[in-house]
């Protein structure tokens, strides 16, 4: 059975935007360092990666933050607690 959901964690060494691409790469069955050509999309086409990383960074003073958006066939949820959930939209 194909895995349709994956959870990742991010931190100062691996920002949320990088962990999202890694997670989608895993679900797509490609290398974790997949290029935009291999994946067929750029994260920037769906969300500003730098803004996302800033919003969910620990210690940003924003309180509890949850950001959800769609990337291709996936629904992505990111929290400022360092957690990412990527789910295939059926």
Q: Sketch the major β-sheet.
A: 4 strands, antiparallel
Q: From the alpha-carbon coordinates, what is the Rg to the nearest angstrom?
A: 13 Å
Strand segment count: 4
What shape does the CA trace take? globular
* Portion in beta strands: 25-35%
Q: What is the ordering of alpha helices and beta strands?
A: EHHHEEE
Give the structural class.
Answer: alpha+beta
Whole-number average pLDDT?
A: 87
Number of domains: 1
- Order of strands in the sheet with the most strands? 1-4-3-2
Number of helices: 3
**Helix coverage percent of residues?**
25-40%
Question: What is the terminal separation in angstroms?
Answer: 14 Å
Low-confidence regions: none
Overall description:
Residues 12-87 form the Halobacterial output domain. This is HalOD1 output domain-containing protein. It comes from Halosolutus amylolyticus. Pfam families: HalOD1. InterPro entries: HalOD1. A hairpin with a 2-residue loop joins strand 2 (66-71) and strand 3 (74-79). It contains 3 helices and 4 strands. The chain has one domain (5-88). The two termini are 14 Å apart. The chain is an alpha+beta fold. The chain has a 4-stranded antiparallel β-sheet with strand order 1-4-3-2, with helices on one face.
């Amino acid at each position: 059975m194909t895995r349709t959901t994956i959870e990742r964690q991010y931190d100062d060494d691996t920002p949320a935007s990088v962990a999202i691409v890694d997670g989608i790469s895993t679900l797509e069955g490609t290398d974790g360092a997949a290029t935009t050509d291999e994946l067929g999309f750029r994260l920037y086409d769906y969300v500003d990666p730098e803004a996302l990383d800033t919003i969910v960074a620990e210690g940003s003073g924003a309180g509890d933050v949850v950001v959800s958006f769609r990337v291709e066939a996936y629904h992505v949820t990111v929290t400022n607690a360092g957690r990412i959930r990527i789910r295939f939209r059926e």
